[in-house]
């Protein structure tokens, strides 16, 4: 890990709570491992796939406005939003749900580290790199963190047969406890809900 990442992570540990839990290691079948590995393979993020150019402009403008206080740098904010939209759609997730999850997990702090060691925007536990990733994957890297986080949430949704409440509980390591799923759903619905008008 680069020294700049360590210093940034140390500074951010004291900048407010995160609600990251501890994603639990569960043995995976070889076929599941292979499919998840393919999902996190390092590919460049293309432009996100919106239905129309007008929808893209409207979504980015609205989400950028909502995110401005948390991420003041406009260029960085737009890069983050485009990556969230792309990775969420790639995993079959609602981008606004992912925004709500990031709000609860890290407060949109790129170098957030939980007490359990979860890292980055989506608070991904490092064991996932060894389980489904490849050596050298940096969980503080924007695209890698989002790709892992979205892939993991999709996996949990699949094994929970679409039950978002249970999938969020698994994601946070708090399965069966209502606080975390309710916080994510609340952030999603109050802060990030959006439909093209």
Question: Can you put this structure into words, describing what you see?
Answer:
The protein has 197 residues and is mainly α. The chain has a domain at 3-16 and 46-152. Helices cover 57% and strands 0% of the residues. The chain contains nine helices and no strands. The chain has helices at 3-13, 30-39, 53-67, 74-90, 95-106, 127-132, 142-159, 164-172, 179-192. Helix 7 packs across helix 8. 37% of the residues are buried. Residues 1-18 have low confidence and may be disordered.
Largest sheet, in brief, is: none
Stretches with pLDDT under 50, minimum 5 residues: 1-18
Question: Roughly what is the average pLDDT, rounded to an integer?
Answer: 84
CA distance, first residue to last residue: 44 Å
Overall radius of gyration: 16 Å
- Structural class by sheet pairing and helices: mainly alpha
Based on Cα principal axes, name the global outline: globular
